[in-house]
Write a structure and sequence with these properties.
Rossmann fold; 11 helices; 4-stranded parallel sheet; alpha/beta; globular; 5-stranded parallel sheet
Length: about 300
């Protein structure tokens, strides 16, 4: 059996093209499992996984937990808001205490960029980054690419635009790495204030006119405006943002072609996209959620098979 080139999933930056293909092939298999009447496989009966969420998360946390349980792993959930972290315990102490309970794998979301890399260097367990600050969110990028592949047949050569708050988005960065690795053409679109200065160095086009961007693309990935990460105001008002960068059905229908709409969630309905877009045939938002479980099962399974060796 072929295996991943890495022992942790810290970011797409550390993967190669073969890794992504292997994860997708494995996810295809697990997608069949999820759609069976009995949705469990006994693959990881001897593996214990700790979910450490130092930042609020509903969908990612549920998706990982479901993936772990579908693989029959033992699962420990840890929420930082109810923990000794509040009392000043360090990240390494927290994790080492959990690892002393004989945990094999840690899924971690943390507000500090690089937290998962730091952890992987100091603890003896396989680490999966479930989002670190505004840095990376690798499983989201994998499920996004996987959903594009499922809808359009392949990712290579396709035009993908990522719209919105690029500056604060770990989803955007991971997506750029993943899409470029697979040979897609990538564009970012949003207010100038929300586009990082040197983003073109990553080989992406920059566009500030949404209509032009949508006419260029096959797929538009609409990002949430991350108000919780903004200490200052990056645009005059939500209403003005929506007028310039929100997608409604009228705008979609005015394009030269039919494009696919994605959103990593949670959706601010009426801000990034209107409800009639979110619920339309062109949107694959619920497919993304379903694919998230299959992708996370694949990642956990492939990393666990390296622990077992």
């Amino acid at each position: 059996m072929s295996e991943l080139s890495v022992n942790h999933l810290l970011g797409i930056k550390y993967l190669n093209k073969n890794d992504i293909e292997l994860i997708f092939e494995t996810a295809d298999h697990f997608k069949e499992v999820i759609n069976r009447p009995i949705k469990k496989v006994p693959s990881l009966r001897d593996i214990t996984i700790a979910n450490l969420f130092f930042e609020n998360s509903t969908r990612t946390k549920l998706s990982f937990e479901l993936a772990e349980k579908r693989l029959s792993a033992d699962v420990i959930n840890f929420s930082a808001s109810q923990s000794s972290v509040k009392k000043g315990e360090t990240l390494i102490d927290t994790v080492n205490n959990i690892l002393s309970m004989k945990v094999d794998m840690v899924v971690m979301r943390h507000p500090n960029p690089g937290a998962s890399v730091f952890l992987s260097q100091h603890v003896d367990a396989s680490i999966i980054n479930a989002g670190d600050g505004a840095h990376e969110h690798p499983t989201q990028a994998l499920l996004d690419s996987y959903s594009i592949r499922e809808k359009l047949g392949e990712v290579k050569g396709k035009n993908i635009v990522i719209v919105g708050d690029i500056l604060h988005s770990r989803v955007a960065l991971s997506n750029i790495y993943a899409l470029k690795l697979q040979g897609a053409n990538v564009m970012v679109c949003g207010p100038k204030t929300l586009i990082p200065k040197h983003i073109d160095k990553l080989g992406v086009k920059v566009e500030t006119n949404l209509h032009k961007a949508l006419n260029w693309c096959d797929v538009a990935n609409m990002l949430r405006v991350q108000n919780e990460r903004m200490e200052i105001s990056y645009f005059p008002s939500t209403r003005e943002y929506t007028q310039q960068f929100g997608v409604n059905k009228t705008l979609l229908d005015s394009l030269d072609k039919e494009i696919t709409i994605m959103h990593p969630g949670p959706i601010n309905r009426g801000v990034e996209i209107t409800s009639d877009v979110a619920d339309s045939k062109q949107a694959i938002i619920l497919d993304q959620v379903q694919n998230g479980v299959a992708i996370r099962m694949a990642v956990i399974y492939l990393l666990a098979s390296k622990i077992k060796q």
